[in-house]
Amino acid sequence: MRLSVHHLTRFAFDQPSGHSIHDVRLSPKPASGQRILSWRIDGPGKRSEWVDGHGNQVTTFSVAQQHESVEIAVTGLYEFSGSDQWLRYGDTPTLPAPFWLRNSTLARHDASFDPMIEGLAEHAAEPSRRVAVLHELMERVRTRVAYKTGVSTVDTTAAEALARGAGVAQDEAHIFIACCRRLGVPARYISGYLRNDDPELQVGRTSHSWAEAWVPGLEWVGFDPANAISPRGDSLRVAVGLDYRDAAPVSGRRVGFGGAKMSVEAEVKVVD
């Protein structure tokens, strides 16, 4: 299967800015069976490339002249083949698995998560049973938290989304991660792409989010609570982090006054 990506992020400023910097974490990390046929990231100003502490490839655009808006566009084509039950990666982990137990801001857990993990701790500690436990947890998240747009923001925490009982893929991923860490299972946030031309999938008109959990012997295994599936070849990973803030597709800062409005439109569809 071959899929195309067209992803546009636009920042519009209330008042002109004299200098803005934007970090883009949208360089793909293909899994086994996936192949990047073409990939391009375009943006204004001076461009630099670097790797962050989580191993993500970052493209930074720095605009040092007066401007009222910034547009960053990604166009790409990727394909996959094979029948793996989950995405497998051959890269060497940048950080050890215990690092991903940290109780981070947006995925912070507390006693309010205990009902979600009731009865799972004993089996989660057994490597041979961990995958089954995590699938059960993913189903619990999907059942407890309805997929609903417009009820959360990028700053909504896992605890807030759990209390509300509704959210989008980002919220469900944060809740799953918080539950995993409370069980003692290392887990991390993934930003990436999933086709949004299939009405059967819960995918917005932006990039997608899911989680990965550490399973001894299998290493990182993906879980997409929004769709109750383990991501397969049509899910393309671009960044990892403790939570959304570490793996945000586009983030920025600027010199100037007034507000800024960000709009995002992504189309990921099968082309062959």
Summary, kept brief:
With 272 residues, the chain is of the alpha+beta class. Helices cover 16% and strands 39% of the residues.
Description:
With 272 residues, this protein is α+β, with helices and mostly antiparallel strands. It folds into 2 domains: 2-81 and 249-270, Immunoglobulin-like, CATH 2.60.40.2250; 97-247, C8orf32 fold (Roll). 16% of the residues lie in helices and 39% in strands. It has helices at residues 121-124, 130-144, 158-164, 169-182, 244-247; strands at 2-17, 19-24, 34-42, 46-51, 57-63, 67-80, 146-147, 166-167, 187-193, 208-215, 219-223, 236-241, 250-255, 260-270. Helix 2 crosses helix 4 and helix 3 packs across helix 4 (169-182). The termini are close together. The mean pLDDT is 95.
Present the secondary structure layout.
Layout: E1 2-17, E2 19-24, E3 34-42, E4 46-51, E5 57-63, E6 67-80, H1 121-124, H2 130-144, E7 146-147, H3 158-164, E8 166-167, H4 169-182, E9 187-193, E10 208-215, E11 219-223, E12 236-241, H5 244-247, E13 250-255, E14 260-270
Helix pairs in contact: 2-4, 3-4
How many angstroms does the end-to-end distance come to? 6 Å
Order of helices and strands: EEEEEEHHEHEHEEEEHEE
Fraction of residues in helices?
10-25%
What integer is the average pLDDT? Answer: 95
> What's the total number of strands?
14
Strand order of the largest sheet: 3-6-1-14
**Which of globular, elongated, flat, extended, rod-shaped describes the shape?**
globular
CATH level 3 topology of the largest domain: C8orf32 fold
Percentage of residues in strands:
35-45%
Number of domains: 2
CATH class of the largest domain: Alpha Beta
Please tell me the CATH architecture of the largest domain by its name.
Answer: Roll
Radius of gyration: 19 Å
Query: Which segments are poorly predicted (pLDDT under 50) over 5 or more consecutive residues?
Result: none
Count of helix runs: 5
Largest sheet: 4 strands, antiparallel
Question: Which structural class best describes the helix and strand composition?
Answer: alpha+beta
